[in-house]
Design goal:
The protein has 265 residues and is an alpha+beta fold. It has seven helices and ten strands. The strands form four sheets. Strands 5-8-9-10 form a four-stranded antiparallel beta sheet, covered by helices on one side. Strands 1-2 form a two-stranded antiparallel sheet.
Length: 265
């Protein structure tokens, strides 16, 4: 199992949201960020490594990214940007000395706690971790040098659940539905506003609780329940990514049409 968590640089506190997962993943990092924001507030800066879930490590720039002068971020980086959190990337494990020492402590003390209760599943391990965190902070956390808290409230119009959801840009189908992976979301008809959203571009936010929320120009137009998010669903997550996706679809259609015409001729 893999433990995902964060430490407060000012106090050494093991922050809320730490939990075990099968492997490092986008959903795991978003869950930690959501719990930190809900229970502590929005931090000024996040200091992290260069894992692929946290930043783009490839060197490819699409045409749209070159024109915009920026690249489409990962889901985690998009959430950090939306919350107004500055990001610093460590160039080596040694650079993150504070959190690396925390991992060393947990590999000693927490592993012993898990062994004592014979925890054998992720659910059991997370239950032990929840109890252990209080004892750990009581023993190791220290008062900050500056008593003025640097935690902030979420920006106006932004919530922890919305920011830390998986975001996807989609085009509404002709039957007034949106498809996310195998999930089809019906958009209720609203004669007072708009009878159909067919062909409209919308943002689908898949909450970590499994709930879907569909937005059109910032307005919530549909909701649905679903399964907890996985990382198998791919698609554009920003306006920049949507433009790139539309261009790729257009290029594919033109290429397919050319092949068809060659076969018929």
């Amino acid at each position: 199992m893999c433990l995902i968590g964060a430490i407060d640089d000012a106090t050494g506190e093991l922050l809320p949201g730490a939990h075990f997962v099968d492997q490092e993943c986008t959903v795991g990092y978003l869950r930690v960020l959501r719990e930190i924001v809900k229970h502590k507030g929005v931090p000024l800066t996040a200091y992290m490594d260069r894992h692929g879930a946290l930043r783009r490590n490839d060197q490819h720039w699409s045409v749209e990214e070159q024109l915009a002068g920026r690249r489409e971020p990962t889901q985690v980086k998009r959430a950090l940007d939306e919350l107004g959190i500055q990001v610093l990337y460590a160039l080596s494990p040694q650079a993150k000395g504070r959190v690396q020492r925390l991992w060393g402590t947990l590999q000693d003390r927490l592993v012993s706690e898990l062994r004592l209760v014979q925890a054998a599943t992720i659910e059991q391990a997370n239950a032990v971790l929840l109890r252990y965190r209080k004892d750990h902070n009581a023993r190791f956390a220290i008062p900050p040098e500056d008593a003025n808290a640097a935690w902030r409230a979420c920006p106006p119009g932004v919530t922890a659940d919305d920011a830390c959801a998986l975001h996807y840009f989609r085009t509404v189908l002709n039957n007034n539905t949106v498809r996310i992976g195998r999930r089809i979301i019906d958009i209720p008809k609203r004669p007072s506003r708009r009878s159909t959203y067919a062909k409209a571009s919308v943002v689908v936010r898949h909450w970590l609780t499994g709930r879907y929320r569909v937005y059109y120009e910032g307005e919530l137009i549909a909701q649905a329940t679903g399964q907890l998010p996985q990382e198998r669903v791919q698609g554009a997550r920003t306006v920049l990514g949507r433009v790139k996706r539309q261009r790729q679809q257009k290029d594919w259609l033109l290429k397919t049409r050319g092949v068809t015409e060659s076969l018929t001729s």
